[in-house]
Structure formats: structure tokens, C-alpha cells
What does this fold into?
Amino acid sequence: MNTKILSKTRVLGTLWLFFVLLFAHQVQSQSTEEWYDQAQERIDTLRRGEFGIEIYDINGQAYTGEVKVRMAKHEYPFGMSFDFYEGDIDTDVPTETQWMKAAMYKYFNYGVSGNSFKWSGIDPYGNGPDYTNFDHAVEWTQSVGWELRAHTLLWGGAEGDNHAMPQWVTNLGAAQAVYDECEDRIKREVTKYKGVIKEYDVINEPLHATYTQELYGDSLNWKSFIWAREADPDAELYVNDYNVEFGWGDADEYVTLINDMIDKGAPVTGVGLQAHFWDCCRPDINDFVTQVNKIAEVGLPMRLTEYDYGGDLTEAQQAEDFIKVATVAFSHPSINGMISWGLSDAGAWRENTGFFTADHTPKLAADTLLYLTQELWATNFDYILGGAETINFDAYYGDYRVEVKFGEKWKEFNIPLKKVNDGAVYELHEGDAELKALEFVQASLVDLNVLEVTFDQSIDSGTLDKADFRVFADNGVGINRVTVKEGDPTVLVFELDKQVSIFDYATLSYFPGTLAAETGATARAFGIEKIQIDSELNKVPEVENHTFHLAENALGGVVVGTVSAIDPEGAALSYKITAGNHLAIFGMNQESGEILLNNPFQLDREETPVHELTVQVSDGMNVVSVLVAIYLDKVLSVGTHAARGTLIYPNPTTNTLNIRSNDSFDQVSIFDLGGQLLYKETYGGLIQDTSLELDLDEGIYLLKLSNKTMINVSRVIVRSN
It folds into this structure.
């Protein structure tokens, strides 16, 4: 692959300074809201470059035909924190770590250690360093082509906080002994990972976590950078802190501290803003951009290092906050990356702040992340090349694949459309191309324990290894066998060791193994891909039309009746009134199917003797609508002091009858429609409520409540169990 340079090649260092100065001028001359509204214009300038492609066949002739350009990975870091406490292991049922790897591979492109590189993660008790867990992270990121950021070399902590600074260090007593251990720690780790780890948080939270500095001196803040630079002259060295993104926070103090450290010789090359937001303190564009601009005046690149959102927010609110912060970060000339701090709710340091729920279902924020990074801010296009021609195009900076069909074979080139290469024209020669990789198309559950996975090429059956695949489902599913589908060599058939619930968010992943196409092309790895459910596997809920009766003088809150439905697969059902509920007279418990009387004052038997409601029953996939007829029963009253507002429930009933009345009574009687007395109970005094246990055949009866001056008669319906 040869590379030529367009005449308008940019001098990148000068360009970066130009944009920072231009940005400062823009903010002074316009509101932050206006600046935010123009984010995409800045993104197009900051994060995209001009490139060209020329393609030649095996004979050196200019290529004519179809070309596909696909972004493989952003140059801009959209990262995630993680720790792996297990290495590569073979298991029948996937582990949480294996799911994390598959999820991150699909959604992110950069990593940072959460705890495994901290001093407490490597040598918590002073017995010597153990790098096992951090090396798991190093090995995995190298295998997927990611950079890994090491967090953190030093962290002053608080009194008793052995997670930040191991107790055995703070207990050394003498300042020189503590400084010697800190220097040894920094130089040992940075030397060990020189050339592997290219970016460190050197000191974490020097504004807030200062217990060690208070005991032994704050020169740790700048000496730590000097020690790190001595161990690796090329590493990026960051300071990192929180509460610097808010107007009420510490941006001014942060700027003062950083400048002071630099003045004292600290080779600080970057500034970390943790960007933890909260339910109380959601990102405000004016506030956030104002504080970011203050810190940008230091003149160093900045990175959002630990972004998360409030845990008590709705998914829509979390996605809204993510869009704001990601847009500011990607469009700001001084912010060179955005790292988030919680993959799923199962492992997030604050409850409900992950991108996925605890059962691995992506939240709206995860869907939004994919949209921004793989659609809105990505370059993918097809082109018909007409011979001796250069394809000139703008592209978001990153790694790209160029797919070309030479003869009957699709081949691909990998090219780095990076910022440093802005203006380059790539000459692509067929002899340098590889066969286009075998690619995943879709996965479908065709039976509860049979999965079919479709690829874009015919598969070599001799390359199958079930251990290269993972099926992630709530009940822990393993793979018994994988075969090529008879009659369709583009499809793999997976026989699973147990049934998958059709209501799980089940996914599949493949990490580079032995799988290959019949052409010899190897399969491209893929992260979690949703398993589609064959609609025939999910039977509709079983439910019939219902009829209920309601006394015309019933009190609000009474249960009119319950819509009964059964799901053949045992899934939880939801219920909703979709039509006929004029004036919101009735309400519905969406989980139980109970219909409630919400607004009794709108009941009018003479005007509307029957209310016909349409109720929708759903299992989450299928929806069934049924008709519910509610008849208003006339209440017969005798006497000048007839009781009003009598509540009789449930009605219809099977055996238990509850009675509540605004007026008092001392006798309850039940008659059949022929007037025969079937039940009578007299109380020693006046009461207003009671419960009866009835033993009556199915039918309609008259209930009489009475005292010396009042008789109230109501109709009661009894049904068999």
C-alpha cells in the first residue's frame, strides 16, 4: 500500500492551537447554548479529514467496479472502565467476565483499569506486587487492538481509606520512607509496562483525597510526575479529579493546582475530568462548558475519565444526559476522549448507573452510544469506481476497511484514516489485499434450544469449534453442538443445552478462533449480537371477553372485576384499557388485570347502563384485545332513611362478601329472587361494615341491610369457584 499526500496537508500542532484559540473567541462572542447548537459543525472540522483512495488490480490496471468503505474503529477514544478477575478460560456456561468482554468489544474502543492497577490492587499488604488481574486487562486489550489506560499510580485517599492508599504505606511513619515507597511503586510499574501502557493517571484526586499529602507533604503531587517521566519519557501523564465540572465545584482551584505543579517541575501532559454526574446535578450545558473552558486555559489536552449519570433517573433521562456530555466532549477541541465508569448495573460503583441493566439488557444510553459512534459520527459508504479515478472523501478519523470485488472474489484492505494522515491518498493494490472476512449477518432462535446463525459466505464445516462462541441468556446456556445447516452452508445450527426464554435479551458473540469460509477467509470477531426470536415460538396470551356487574352507587376504589388471562409460556402479562373509558371512570392495575372504579361520580345508570371497555393484554411481544362489558346494577331502596354510598365487594363473589356503608345497620338478610330467606344475621348494635362467608349456589340474590328506620336492598351475584 502506497500513500501520497494531498496538497492541502495540515500542520497538526499548529491546527490544534488554532482551533483552541478560535474556540475561545467563539465562546466569548456567543452563548454556550449557541455554541452547543453548532456542535456538529465543529465536529466536522475537528474529527474529520480529507482522504483519497486509488485501487489497482493484480496486473496494475486501474480498478473498475464496486467499492465499500467501512469504519472499523474510531480514533477518538470512547472508553469503558473494567477489571477482569479471571483470565481466558473454557467454560460450558459463559461467565460475567466473558459477557463484559463481548459487550465492550461491540460498544466501546478503549479501556481503563478500574481497580486492578491501583496500589491496593497490586500490593495491598506490602507483600510484593501481584500483577495477575491487571495483566488480564493488558492481554485482552492487546488481543482486540485497544489502548489501555492505567488508573492510578498514586491516590492520597482519606483516613482509613486503604483502597486509595494501602495502610502499610501510610503507617510507615517517616515522610522519607513514604516518599521512597511511592517512588519505587511508580518507577517499578511504569518501567514494567513501558511501551505497553501509554497513558497513566499519575495522581488521583489531589484536590480532595489528600490524607497522605497532609501527613507527609504535598510535594507528592508533583514529584510523582517527575518519577513517572524518569521511568518512561514517552508516556502521557495525567492528573485526575472530580467536582470540577460544576459551577459550585472546584474548577478554579483545579487550574491553580495544576499550574502550581507545572511550575514546580511536574511534566503534566493531560488533565482528567472525572465527570461523575448525579440525580441532583445533571449536566447543564452552560455550567459544564463554562467549567471545561476554565480548565482548558491550562493549555493541556483534557479527557473525561470516569463519566456516569444519576442512578435514579429514567432511561430516557440517562440517555439525554449522555448525549449532552458526549456532544460537548466530541466537539470540544481540548477534549481528546471520553471514558465511562460503569458497563452494567451488576457491577457499577453506583446503583443503576450502567449502560446495561443487571440482566444484560441495553439501556437507551447504550443504544444512543451505538447510534452516535457507529452511525451519526461514522463514515460508511459504497462507491462505483470507474477506472483511473481517485475516490476523494471526508471521513471521521479511525481505522477503516475497504472492500473490493476483484473478479469473483471480494477482498479487503485495512487503512488508517487517522488525523496524522489527514490529506493522504492511499494506493491499494490487489496483491496487498486479503480475502474479505466471513461476517455475521443474524442469529435466530428457531426452537427454544436451537439457534441458527447466518453468515455472508458459505462456511467450511471443518473449522467449527463451539468453544469460540458464547450464548448469553439469563438462565446460563451452554452449547452442545455446532453444525453447518444441511442445504444452506451459510448457516450454523447451534444445539443448546437448555431452553432459552423467549423473553430474555439473549445474545451471541464470537471471538477470533478457527471459523472460516469455504474460500479460506477467516471469520471476523463480533461482540454481543441480539438473538432474534422466531415469532412462531411465542404463542399469544389466552384471554376471553369479560362481563362484570357494578352497583350504580358503588364507592370509588372498588374492584369491579379482574381480567383473567394465561400466557402459554408463563410470561408475566400486562394489561391496559385502550378504548371506551370515557371520563376516565375506570382504572386498571397493569400487572394484575384488576379494573378499578376511579370516578364514581360519573356513573349514571339511566344514561349509560353498560360501559364497554377494550382491554389490551400483552406478553411483551404479542398483544390481544378483548371486550369488557360493565353493567350498572340498580340499587333498590325502601324507607325515608335509605342508606346511600353502600359498598358491596367483590360483586360478583364466590363466597366472601364485604359490606361497607355510610349509614349504620344492625341486620343483614339475603333472599333469593323468589323472596325466600336464605341468610340472616342480627348484630348487638349498629355497625357500618362487616364481612360474610356465604355458602350459596351460583345465581343472583338480594342483600338487605336494615335498622329500625332504614332498609337498603342491593343485588349480589354469586359465581362458582
